[in-house]
Amino acid sequence: MKHSKKKGDQTPLTEQDVMGSEDDFAPGGSDGAQARGAAFDGSSGTDRSGESGAADTSVGEPRGPGTDDLATERDKYLRLAAEYDNYRKRSAKERQDAGTRAQAELVRQLVEALDDVARFAHIDPTTTDAGTIVQGVDMVEKKLLKALGGAGLEVINPLGETFDPALHEAVATEPTSAREDDHVVSRVYQPGYVFRSQLLRPARVVVKQWNG
């Protein structure tokens, strides 16, 4: 009596089924063998494209300014340096020339007073009285003060004024009985001079002092 196969019974695989047919191992074998070979190659994780050499991913180094640019900048620098040096020399010369012209103008104004001094220096004292000499010296003084005043000179003669330490120098004191005369200049030994707001010499004076 024949027995029927039950559902779920498995037929034992033959050796050929397990190993595969001969065609699978032949050159240019079956498509299944090729598929398995491709799957094996893909699972190995080997990047075959990388075997031929890595791609060049390096970035080129930045290039510095060209030789022409450096030469241009250097030429500009040399030109500016030369222009500044010329300006500095020209300014110094202009200042020197201006000072020379100002001094020449002052000397020109003093020439006439110098002529008067020369005339009085060579007079015959036996034929000239003292009054004439004094009058001549007074005239020369006025000419000098006029010339120097035009150049900016101011005379400080603080007789009877309140003592100012910024412009006066007290060389002595003298007592006074009047309170209102305290710190008032009583005598001027030497006048002071100011030239264009610059103190050349303080006036040397005697100051009154009230002791109470």
Your description of this structure?
By secondary structure, the protein is α+β, with helices and mostly antiparallel strands. The protein has helices at residues 15-19, 22-25, 31-43, 67-121, 130-151; strands spanning 153-156, 168-176, 185-190, 192-195, 198-201, 203-210. Among the domains are: 72-151, no CATH class; 153-210, Nucleotide Exchange Factor Grpe, Chain A, domain 2 (Roll), CATH 2.30.22. It contains 5 helices and 6 strands; from the N terminus they run H-H-H-H-H-E-E-E-E-E-E. A 3-stranded antiparallel beta sheet has the order 1-4-5. The protein has a 3-stranded mixed beta sheet with strand order 2-6-3, with no helix packed on it. Strand 4 and strand 5 form a beta hairpin. The termini are far apart. Residues 1-10 and 22-60 have low confidence and may be disordered.
In short:
This protein has 212 residues and is of the alpha+beta class.
Largest sheet: 3 strands, antiparallel
Number of helices: 5
Termini separation: 168 Å
Output the radius of gyration. Answer: 59 Å
Approximate shape: flat
Structural class by helix and strand composition: alpha+beta
- Assembly type of the chains comes to single chain
**Proportion of strand residues:** 15-25%
Q: Strand tally, please?
A: 6
Please state how the strands of the largest beta sheet are arranged side by side.
Answer: 1-4-5
List SSEs in N-to-C order. Answer: HHHHHEEEEEE
Mean pLDDT: 77
Provide the helix percentage.
40-55%
